[in-house]
Write a structure and sequence with these properties.
4-stranded antiparallel beta sheet; about 325 residues
Amino acid sequence: VGTFIAGLLLIWSKFHDSRHRASIPLENSRWTAVFGVADDDCWTESAKKDCLANPLNEQLWKSNIVRRSDEYYQSIEADYKKPFWLGLEIKASELKKAQLAGATRLHLGLLYSHYDVWVEGEKVQSGDYRENDLPVVLDMSSRQLQNDKSIRVAVNVTRDGKMKTVDAGWFVPEMGFFTAEASEQQLRWVAFSQDTRFYVVFAVFLLFGLIFRIAAITKETKVEYPAASVFAFIIALSQFIEADSTFRLLGPALYYQINNALLMAEIFGVMSLGLSVARSREKYLRIINIAIPVAFLTAFALSLVKSDDGNITEFILTYLTPTAYLLAAISCF
C-alpha cells in the first residue's frame, strides 16, 4: 500500500510541478524527418554541402514527415535497418527566452539506437542507447543562446535492424530547453519509469510469491496458494525482464525470447489461479499446471526459430493476455 501511494504521489508531482517542465517546450510538430539517407556525405569536405546536417541544405528542414506522426512511425517500421534524420529549427527569439530563463539544457528526446547530433553543421555529440538509456541532452553555450538568427539541429539515427521501437513517446519527458534543476528531475523521472518502477514491482511480487509458497506448505488443502505463488513468481520475473537495464544487458534478441516465454507462462498462470479459486475444476487445473512450463519452453523455442522484433510480444499482449485474464475471472463464477 505504501509503495502504491508513493507511486501515485510521484506521478502527481510529475504532472503538476511546473518547475520541472521545459522553460521553452519544442513540440513534435516542430521536428521533420528524412528516411533512407546515411551520413556518408558528412565526413568529407567536398561532399559536406550534400550532408543533411548542413544548415544550407534544405532537404531535411523542408520535409513533410513530422516526428512521431503516423507516417513517421510507418516509415520506422517499414525497414528496421534504414537510417534516418531528424531536424529541428530553433528560432532566435526562443534562444533568447531560454537564456533569460537560465534554461541552457536542450532535451532532444529518447532514441533507442545509435545517434549523432549536429548543430549548425557541426557534430557535437554521439551516443548509443546500449550505453546510455537517458534522453539526448545538449548543454548550450552562452554564445549559441545569444545568436541573432535561428539555429538548426540535426540528428542522424543509425539502426541495428533489431529494434522495432526507436523513438519512444511514452514515459518520456517533453522536449525543449530546461533549467539545470528541471533537467535533473526529468532524467530522474526517466530512470524511475524505465528501471526503478519495474524493480519495485519485481520485489513486491517476489515477496507475494514467497508468502503464498510458505502458506501452501502450511495449508496443503488450499489449492489456490500454490497457484498464487507460481503466478506471483511469473509476474516478478516478467517485471525484472521489462526493466531497461535488464533489456540492455540481454540485447533485443534474447530479451524478446525470454519475454515471450514469460508472457505465455503468465497466460496459463492466471488461468490456473482462476481455476484454483473456483475449486470445482481440478481436472482442468492439473492440465493448466502442466501447460505452464510447456508454454514457456514453446514460446522460447518459437522465438529462436523466428527472429522476433517485438511483433509476437505485441500480439500476445494485445489479444492473448486480456483473453486469459477474462477467462480466469469468468471461471471464478
